[in-house]
Amino acid sequence: MASVGGNFYSVPDATRRRVVEVHTLAEEVRIFEDGALIATHPILEGRHQRHVELGHRNIHVHKRRQRRGNDEVVLHGSGDRVALRPLAFYDAVARMMAKEQRP
Q1: 8-19: per-residue pLDDT in tens?
Q2: Where are the domains of the chain?
């Protein structure tokens, strides 16, 4: 998110840089990365508001989440799939990684 005038405007998840160039015009905010336009947003009135463009955040498309019979979930319509795993799996992975990093 880019903070402009007390409000937050989304940038695509694929944005590589933490510092972007922002142009504030009369009716819109334009956000550039390396000179390329990566996002445009309408100006938000007030403060502490957020504007998220569709496609900038995968977390905002969870309403289209579909469950498949083979323990996979389609996160959004692009066909990306992940296996469903219990949290205990990730706990075990973290414990193994912690042991490997000790001298």
Answers
A1: 999 998 888 888
A2: 2-100
